[in-house]
Design goal:
- 33% of the residues lie in helices and 19% in strands.
- The chain is of the alpha/beta class and 575 residues long.
- It has 3 domains: 3-140, Nucleotidyltransferase, domain 5 (2-Layer Sandwich), CATH 3.30.420; 194-345, ATPase, nucleotide binding domain (Nucleotidyltransferase, domain 5); 389-574, DHBP synthase (Alpha-Beta Complex), CATH 3.90.870.
């Protein structure tokens, strides 16, 4: 028997596991709908998974389906119809624009056509759009699913587990202890109104960027600020412990009151006001980015210190706040004696997996941790059409092309699950020319403030990268998934300028031979022949597009001159 996990909402995704929690297939809906951050249900991703696993409709109806998030909140019935109705899929970005006039009334009216309580209505609407009946539908708390994704993927025996994001089921975070025998001690649930994710998003919007999509641009701006300390201190929103309460001066500000309920506190307005007050003290946009980044880091580090001291040598993290690679690097520096693990699909796209694992824990059936989960668990490549013009290439051919400055689209094997391209759906280029960042961003119509990330063989990692003191990095699992920054050794700053930020950091991916033998050998040739141990690995997509899913999208990028050449496995494809 299989289990189907679903993220319904923004970053919709699906995961399919066996009855012991081994993930057999997982993918984000956006890769198929081609709508970034797809808001809705993962119908196309599920269809792809069904095809990959060769499942029948009869089988599907007998599987347990697990949803991340509560489905029994009556005031959300209209929203569930928006999320689940196929006619609405991928059409709205509720974070950055309102839904069209009249649609809310229509959704509320239509939701009344379904009988029963809210959870039953949810199941009926879902079944109507899936095309089959569901025998068993279970909902799992949003942050419990985040926590499960972090812990069970970490392979830790016991761990402090921290989740932080914008919001989910009325919360913005949790702190707990988890162990492999399923034991859990819940230490803290943090209400939505204390959301560090929402605070960071308010700065994102102040720059004119999109919430829940462009926060990484703010992170990239941080290193461009030349100021430190009190001169860029962020307006204090919280009391000493951010999860315990707001600074009183906000509680009595009449501008933040909801006129329908004077006791209702609008935390988003408080955050917006804090951003405005902070901005008045600053002189440049990078200063505001650094100000909120420092505030984020201080609060998260204090939270972890409060609950980790003397209690755990392992810390597992998930939730959208931990997509902040600078924050993750600071956590490593602050807790040098701890093993730190960030779930690679840390945002809501990873909830479909976490929901399955938390469901199993609640059933007393704990996920098998004997094998570290892979992120190459999405759709596989199609067979190359017979009329495509292709020629077989070697790792030496690819190395020569990269050394000569050719921009290569590279696609192989199963698609990555998560927000990072891990060399199965990537664009590759030489890092020796600092101008490549500007040139490639122009071709992809991107606006980025961080350099491109590098990929490097496992055997070369310590030679190039280190911690803030120049020492060898410990517990390097996160660097397989590009979830942390670290420092570049001084001797490689001029050799690899295109992958180094102005603060001397980079966000590397460690590649093992079993991950990608062809590219691993290519990297070896570049390292041995030209002392280029790392190359640029950026996601295979243009601005505001999801990472590509298939060979046809890859070839279209070649036709549009977004890349110079295209490799599909060992074959070079010609237009």
């Amino acid at each position: 028997m299989l289990i189907i996990g679903l993220t319904v909402g923004h970053d919709a995704s699906v995961s399919i596991s066996d009855d012991k929690g081994k993930i057999l297939y997982a993918a984000a809906e956006e890769r198929f709908s081609r709508v970034k951050g797809h808001l809705g249900a993962p119908y196309s991703a599920l269809k792809s998974g069904i095809k990959y696993l060769n499942l029948s409709v009869q089988e599907l109806s007998t599987f347990t389906h697990v949803i991340a998030g509560s489905i029994n909140s009556k005031n959300l019935e209209w929203f569930y119809l928006l999320l689940l109705g196929k006619e609405y899929q991928g059409k709205f970005d509720v974070f950055n624009s309102p839904i069209p006039p009249g649609l809310l009334r229509k959704l509320k009216q239509d939701s009344n056509k379904y009988p029963g309580g809210t959870d039953f209505k949810f199941q009926l609407i879902l079944e109507e759009n899936l095309g089959y009946k569901i025998k068993n539908l279970i909902s799992i708390n949003h942050h419990d699913a985040h926590a499960a994704s972090a812990f069970w993927a970490s392979t830790f025996q016991n761990s402090l587990v921290v989740t932080l994001d914008g919001s989910g089921d009325g919360e913005s975070g949790t702190v707990r202890q988890l162990s492999v025998d399923g034991g859990q001690k819940l230490l803290k649930r943090i209400p939505e109104k204390f959301s560090l994710g929402h605070l960071y998003s308010e700065v994102t919007k102040r720059y004119g960027f999109k919430e829940s999509r462009h926060e990484g641009k703010i992170t990239g701006l941080v290193a461009l600020s030349k100021k430190n300390g009190e001169e860029i201190a962020f307006e204090k929103v919280f009391k000493r412990d951010f999860y315990c309460g707001f600074n009183p001066k906000y509680l009595f500000d009449y501008r933040l009151r909801d006129p329908k309920n004077l006791r209702e506190f609008n935390h988003r307005m408080a955050f917006k006001l804090a951003v405005a007050r902070t901005e008045q003290k600053l002189t440049d946009f990078p200063d505001l980015a650094k100000s909120v980044q420092n505030y984020l880091q201080d609060n998260v580090l204090n939270l972890i210190k409060k609950f980790s001291t003397g209690k755990s040598s392992s810390i597992a993290l998930a939730g959208g706040v931990f997509s902040n690679v600078l924050l993750n690097g600071e956590i490593r520096e602050a807790f040098k004696e701890c093993s730190i693990y960030v779930y690679p699909n840390m945002g809501d796209g990873g909830l479909s997996t976490g929901a399955i694992w938390e469901y199993l824990r609640l059933q007393g059936q704990f996920p098998n941790q004997s094998i570290e989960p892979s992120m190459y668990i999405g759709s596989d490549l199609e067979k190359l059409p017979s009329d495509w013009n292709a020629k077989e290439r070697t790792p030496k051919d690819l190395a020569d092309e990269l050394f000569n400055g050719t921009i290569i689209g590279f696609i192989t094997g199963r698609m990555e699950y998560g927000p990072r391209a891990l060399c199965h759906r990537s664009i590759l280029a030489t890092p020796t020319n600092a101008n490549i960042n500007r040139d490639l961003n122009l071709r992809l119509n991107r606006t980025e403030f961080m350099p491109f990330a590098p990929v490097i063989r496992d055997i070369d990692f310590d030679k190039v990268f280190c911690d803030a003191l120049g020492e060898k990095l410990k517990y390097i699992t996160n660097f397989r998934f590009m979830t942390e920054t670290c420092y570049v050794r001084s001797e490689y700053l001029k050799i690899l300028p295109a992958i180094v930020h102005v603060d001397g950091t980079a966000r590397p991916q460690i590649l093992r031979h079993e991950d990608n033998p062809f590219l691993y050998e290519t990297l070896g040739i570049l390292a041995n022949n030209w002392n280029i141990p790392a190359i640029i690995n950026t996601s295979f997509n243009a601005h505001e597009e999801p990472i590509i899913e298939n060979i046809y999208q890859a070839k279209n990028a070649l036709i549009k001159n977004q890349i110079d050449k295209l490799y599909v496995d060992k074959l070079e494809i010609f237009v």
